[in-house]
Design goal:
Layout: E1 3-8, H1 14-24, E2 31-38, E3 41-48, H2 51-60, E4 67-73, E5 88-89, E6 93-101, H3 104-113, H4 125-137, H5 142-149, E7 155-163, E8 170-175, E9 180-185, E10 191-196, E11 208-211, E12 217-220, E13 228-230, E14 236-237, E15 242-243, H6 248-251, H7 259-265, H8 267-278, E16 279-280, E17 285-286, E18 300-305, H9 307-324, E19 327-332, H10 333-336, E20 348-354, H11 360-371, E21 375-380, H12 386-390, E22 393-396, H13 409-428, H14 434-444, H15 447-455, H16 466-473, E23 477-482, H17 486-501, E24 504-509, E25 527-530, H18 537-548, E26 554-559, H19 560-569, E27 573-579, H20 582-592, H21 614-621, H22 623-637
Parallel strand pairs: 18-19, 18-20, 20-21, 21-22, 23-24, 23-25, 25-26, 26-27
Antiparallel strand pairs: 1-4, 1-10, 2-3, 2-4, 5-6, 6-7, 7-8, 8-12, 9-10, 9-11, 11-15, 12-13, 13-14, 16-17
The chain binds fructose -6-phosphate (F6R).
Length: 654
């Protein structure tokens, strides 16, 4: 979604602003622009399309000045064309804005009736005219003008404004959408001040930052001692700056072609980080932050999320119900408010799953839970995010910054964290003994090694993914099937491929095919089955027979035992992707440990409902092939892997 940057330096700011806009590209955008103060006058350059086009405009017509603002726009109101690109400006001031001004239509009417002329179709432009009117009414008192304008704007947004003739001053406000303020010490000891829509946009620039709280606004100057921060009641509050965290984006893509490739490849080590953070070596059980409830008092967990994060929550539903006996309700966040969920405090708690922690739909759903008095857990990757701040407990997923728009490592770290959450719940409710919980934990620690094996040939010409990728890349429509815990992975696989290769794909529960979708089957629709050799495999194999006998080209993602069973069963496979066999790996480990009585693991042992740790390992491991295939298909199709069209990384509008 839209990205904001603002900067006050002693040196020209156009180039650093451009570099910061590049760091904002990952959020998704379709036009960009910037404005600076040149001898007190506002000058601006804008362009539709990617930052390179803005760069070309700037090469022809450079911008000078030491105070400036920049913006990447993801169109909401008005097409992604130059006249709608930010900054919006007049001779008095320029504004960049992220979010939506919900009452813009009535404000626009009011302002037009006063004779103010609009140039764009955006909601954002009303801010320019409102601020200008208040600056005029308040004899140029900018602080007063800003204070007057904020209560008139309805919606969730962040904005930054720059004023003609006021070098070294920027105004910024946060009303629902994040805004960060920062400072660094320049080369000659002078100070540089910044606004950014996230910490990432300021990486490599600011050395100290502070996240504005909701309703807060600031008058930024180059030096922190000259800057002022006000709370939602306009009372001044001190700037409690924190050191800028080290950001992966500053380190770049390394040798990888895309951030998505890098983020897929780093999963074995990221999974190890998650497990180290979550597992207690002393008890050999998971370690969670203190929770404001006891698992044994909980009857229902409500979960909400969007997109990929929603599929992580769906996997957790299978786990929590089967391993811990907790009923789980999972809702797509954008829909939760449009039904009447039965929410009650006491025996119900809620969890919001979000990589960014800023997704507006999820935030709004979370507010509904909180209004009903439920204790809330934020399972987020960004610990400083709005969702994290709103919840009673934060469960960080420790994925590190994820830059590729298509979520990869954020998804699998959500799963791993949810696995640890489930094991704690199961243990505390007496569904898994201490010994069983530890043996499950030990089995989970095999996952990074299994992932590394799975990724061995990723990107190489002899990759086992090549054949399946070719088949998928030629198709217009693709179906992904899964059963049990593999069903959400089929949904995720279908989402991944449509996001970055623009191939129409749908995920179905394997058993649902015969209830309708099988009508779609012919030899032009490849069917990919996510089917580990598990308790449900035989049933899925029957479904594959049904589609294969109707001409479908079947791609089987399974272990060697699964592929052999399909071959023996006579399912003609068009392509196969063979993953390490978790069960065999665990069996070998148990054999090796046989001498030690204490280490006789019980991973294979089933719980009361007949589920074993394999049902926990499979969805995590089988996420990798669907990510890799989506990536490889996008490469074959030549699409933009990291910034697919129309998509935004952090979806801050409803
Ligand atoms: C898909 C993807 C999106 C996000 C969704 C929620 O690859 O990344 O579907 O999962 O927009 O975003 P977060 O997790 O930031 O709330």
């Amino acid at each position: 979604m839209c990205g904001i940057i603002g900067m006050i330096d002693a040196k020209p700011v156009a180039l650093p602003l451009l570099a910061a806009l590049r760091r904002l590209e990952y959020r998704g955008y379709d036009s960009a622009g910037m404005a600076t103060l040149n001898e007190g006058r506002i000058e601006r350059r804008r362009s539709e399309g990617k930052i390179v086009r803005l760069e070309k405009v700037l090469q022809k017509e450079p911008l000078f000045g030491t105070t400036g603002i920049g913006h990447t726009r993801w169109a909401t109101h008005g097409a992604p064309v130059e006249k709608n690109a930010h900054p919006h400006a007049n001779g008095t001031l320029a504004v960049v804005h992220n979010g939506i001004i919900e009452n813009f239509a009535s404000l626009r009417k009011e302002l037009e009736e006063e004779g103010r002329r609009f140039e764009s179709e955006t909601d954002s432009e009303v801010i320019v005219h409102l601020l200008t009117r208040e600056v005029e009414r308040n004899d140029g008192d900018l602080a007063l003008a800003c204070r007057e304008v904020l209560p008139r704007l309805k919606g969730m947004f962040a904005l930054v404004a720059m004023f003609a003739g006021k070098e070294g001053l920027l105004f910024g406000a946060r009303c629902g959408s994040p805004l960060v303020l920062g400072f660094s010490d320049g080369d000659k000891g002078e100070s540089v001040g910044y606004f950014g829509s996230d910490a990432l946009s300021l990486s490599g620039l600011a050395e100290r930052i502070v996240y504005l709280h909701d309703g807060e606004w600031a008058l930024l100057r180059a030096r922190e001692e000259d800057s002022q921060l006000f709370d939602a009641n306009n009372a001044p509050r001190g700037l409690s700056l924190q050191p800028m965290p080290v950001m992966a984006v500053a380190l770049g893509k390394g040798n990888h072609r895309h951030f998505m490739e890098k983020e897929i490849v780093e999963q074995p080590s990221v999974w190890s980080d998650v497990l180290s953070a979550r597992l207690d070596p002393a008890t050999r059980r998971p370690r969670l932050p203190a929770l404001p409830f006891l698992f044994r008092d909980i009857s229902t967990l409500h979960m909400t999320a969007c997109g990929t994060a929603y599929y992580a929550a769906l996997v957790a539903k299978y786990w929590l119900e089967a391993f811990a006996g907790i009923a789980v309700e999972v809702d797509v966040a954008s829909e939760l408010r449009y039904r009447a969920p039965v929410l009650r405090s006491g025996d119900q708690v809620a969890m919001c799953v979000s990589q960014s922690g800023e997704t507006m739909d999820s935030l709004e759903a979370l507010r509904l839970y909180r209004k009903a008095g439920l204790k809330t857990i934020a399972l987020v990757n960004v610990e400083q995010s709005s969702i994290a701040r709103l919840c009673d407990v934060v469960l960080p997923t420790h994925a590190g910054p994820e830059i590729g728009v298509a979520s990869t490592k954020a998804f699998t770290t959500q799963l791993l964290t949810l696995a640890c959450f489930t094991l704690t719940a199961a243990n505390e409710r007496g569904w898994l003994s201490n010994e069983q919980t530890s043996s499950f934990v030990e089995a989970l620690t095999c996952l990074p090694g299994l992932a590394a094996r799975c990724l061995e040939k990723f990107g190489a010409s002899e990759s086992q993914f090549a054949e399946a990728a070719q088949l998928l890349a030629r198709a217009h429509d693709v179906l992904y099937l899964g059963r049990g815990v593999s069903y959400p992975i089929a949904l995720e696989g279908a989402l991944k491929i449509k996001e970055i290769s623009y191939i129409h794909a749908e995920g179905y529960a394997a058993g649902e095919m015969k209830h309708g979708p099988i009508a779609l089957v012919d030899d032009s629709v490849p069917i990919l089955a996510v089917a580990p050799y598990d308790r449900w495999f035989a049933k899925t194999l029957s479904n594959l027979h049904e589609v294969a006998s109707r001409g479908a080209k079947v791609i089987l993602v399974s272990s060697a035992r699964g592929v052999a069973a399909a071959d023996e069963g006579g399912v003609a496979l068009a392509a196969r992707v063979v993953l390490p066999d978790c069960e065999e790996v665990l069996a070998k480990r148990t054999d090796a440990d046989k001498s030690s009585e204490e280490n006789k693991t019980k991973e294979g042992e089933e719980n009361a409902r007949g589920w074993s740790v394999l049902e926990m390992m499979h969805p995590i491991l089988y996420s990798l092939p669907v990510q890799i295939l989506a990536h490889d298909v996008a490469l074959l199709k030549g699409t933009d892997v990291d910034q697919p069209r129309n998509l935004a990384k952090s979806v801050t509008v409803e």
